[in-house]
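Subject: Sanity check before I submit

Could someone independently write out the structure tokens for this chain? I want to compare against mine line by line before I put it in a report. The sequence has 328 residues.
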Amino acid sequence: MEKRLPFEEPLYELEEKIAALKRFMAEQNLDLGEEVERLEARLAHLKVETYRNLTPWQKVQIARHPNRPTTLEIAQGMLTDFLELHGDRLFADDPAIVGGIGLLDGIPVTLIGHQKGRDTKENLARNFGMPHPEGYRKALRLMEQAEKFGRPIITLLNTPGAYPGKTAEERGQSEAIARNLRVMSALSVPIVVVVVGEGASGGALGIGVGDRILMLEYAWYSVISPEGAAALLWKDAKEAERAAQTMKITAQDLLELGIIDAVIPEPLGGAHRDKPEAIRRIKAAVKAALLELMPLSPKTLVDDRYEKYRRIGRFASLFDETPSTGGA
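---
Independent answer below. Compare away.
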């Protein structure tokens, strides 16, 4: 049974009412076509109004939907001849991060992303999409391989955060993420990043430094989850909805703030409603970004990437009350 989000209940109730009316028509041999058409028109309008006016918390709920397209589904849908590669050559293979090589309409690329599961068993195997250090080191190995062979890199972000457990800390979680940030900032091949679901903290940023940052319409991206922010601010994770309202974590907020470069529209109701169409839109956006970046020289790519991140953020001088853009 498909997971029902709380704010979608009126839609499901109306769908069930229409289905019941159609069954009644068939059983009683009655013609209630006009009433069915009226209800279907009402449903269509209600869907548009519902998803047009989502709150930040409702977008977080859609981003976390268990049927949202995974990295492997997107890879198989976007690329031909996709070959998954495994292991960091140091400790183990981390199934919470997957990656490999394939062809994007004939363009050789390396694709890397977080991988969640569909059910409890899969999520346990994938550690709920929370990578250990070996996941980031696997990603780094694949990115350095991509640079060696001149392949553009695509990364897909969808994680509630890097795994915070003792074993991850023992194996150098923070060092692995920091190393990725440093190396990605200087790679000489194009990097396109897509936030496809949850983009939480350094767990996302560990494979999230790029020349173009794209986000699906209902994804979220932040230094901390709404629950984490609520626990810090109000000592109560149940205040997550309140936190989401103030955190500027949605794709629309981040586009306005200049953190990301573009928003990829999702099918009505979210990417999980029509995965093939959602993947088609991701592919089109990624390909357009790559075609802009691939003619650039390695030096231009690195210089532009540096300037891109220098421009992010606003600060005010102690001697000038007018806010400026860019890093200090």
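---
OP: Matches mine. For the report I'm noting this point. The chain is about 50% helix and 20% strand.
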